[in-house]
Amino acid sequence: MNETFVIRVAFQGTEHEFKARFERWGYTHRIAVLIDETTFTFEPDEEGGYRALAEGPAATVNTGLLQVVAEKLAKLRD
Fold this sequence. Notes:
It is built from one helix and five strands; from the N terminus they run βββββα. The chain is an alpha+beta fold. It has one domain. A hairpin with a 5-residue loop joins strand 4 and strand 5. The radius of gyration is 12 Å and the shape is globular. 15% of the residues are buried.
């Protein structure tokens, strides 16, 4: 079952809201997040955080923003 939700993060003094979708993936999961018309898939990494993968050609999204989203997702998992 894929569940949708909104993730809110603060980055460079601005609040951002992104549409996200939880996806079961075998024995694990992924979270697809729409940022600036590009879908980034966040999947769990070996350290308990998340890594981001761009689907298709990646827009010029600040890597710091991707890090903030990954940290927020890790906090939601705890």
